[in-house]
Give the backbone structure.
Amino acid sequence: MTTESAQELRNRQAKFTAELHGDDIGSKSGLKALLSKNKAAQEEAVAKYLRHWDGKTDTDAEQRRLEDYNEGTHSYYNVVTDFYEYGWGSSFHFSRFYPGESFTASVARHEHFLAYKAGIQAGDLVLDVGCGVGGPAREIARFTGANIVGLNNNDYQIAKAKYYANKVGLADQLDFVKGDFMNMHFEPETFDKVYAIEATCHAPKLEGVYGEIYKVLKPGGVFAVYEWVMTDKYDETNPEHRQIAYEIELGDGIPKMFPAEVARKALTSVGFEVTYDQDLADNDDAVPWYYPLTGEWKYVQTLADLATFFRTSYIGRKFTTTMVTVMEKVGIAPKGSRDVTLALEEAAVGLVAGGKAKLFTPMMLFVAKKPEKE
Ligand SMILES: CC(C)=CCC[C@@H](C)[C@H]1CC[C@H]2C3=C(CC[C@]12C)[C@@]1(C)CC[C@H](O)C[C@@H]1CC3
Ligand SMILES: C[S@@+](CC[C@H](N)C(=O)[O-])C[C@H]1O[C@@H](n2cnc3c(N)ncnc32)[C@H](O)[C@@H]1O
């Protein structure tokens, strides 16, 4: 059997993206984009994503998911990006909420805080690892005046990120490039700062992605990350705990959730000095980070958030699943769309359960420094 080279994989993924999403990427988003997909390609993308998710959590099943991390995540984001944009917006991450604070203000504040902790300055060259459709990069570019390169292995998201950057007049400050964060193509010591928001959890091994980040950072450079990890309360041998982690993995396209300790050790093992280490979810916030997925109206902070909250709540999600099921049955929505909403439902359930029990956090903040040269 011949193995595919990295270049062949890139070409195949790019070709598939063109087939699946067409050439008018950007102008359509959310459910409108979903309805304009190539139906056969969408069916294939969903099958590709779901092929490794058979309920098994034994070592062999995990190994298969870890080995297929690139295609697995690529397929996952091919099929969920429209739902994310429809339900959440263009920053694909969680955030803390202060009483009275709107959803969009909270998302932006979370991004500003990371930029502040990384010490990003005007004129810095910054890498955004796993940049999504560029929501955080646009906000951090405006907030700091830095130049940002977004790295992503999903062609559809890159095309969208470029489209949005042009639309808001930030094309001079932002660039978005295709690449696997486990094998970066940048020259060593290129970037002043690197950040990653809820993306490196897709890595099959954290030393791999952190090692690549270390390599492309300049000596004295800083890496700041919001990492998705299981907390110290998590016990892998407890079936209820493992079920929650499995729901998070399946619904969020993650080959394997790692404990916080594994992330901490991985950072130091590749050479970083960890200067800040804090689980931002481990506090007494009156409004929990997972509130939009709970369906508890008492947490909604502003009237402007009602539409978002409806879409993210249990009832809103059921409404979307029913609507998509009907559209799929009558042939308007591509086959497999319903399966995507069901996988996202598992994500929501697992994330809330993990968040409530404090077994999981999406905001383990590490700030790490690459030592100066001797
Ligand atoms: C996958 C990783 C590492 C991060 C993404 C975090 C969040 C932005 C997503 C996690 C679960 C997602 C769901 C939705 C939006 C984006 C997330 C919150 C929906 C609300 C989108 C609309 C669907 O109908 C229901 C989804 C539930 C899960
Ligand atoms: C949850 S999204 C977060 C996106 C962005 N950081 C944000 O907050 O909006 C995770 C991102 O990581 C990217 N990603 C996952 N695996 C990757 C890999 N191996 N190489 C590059 N990017 C990857 C996905 O395509 C997606 O854009």
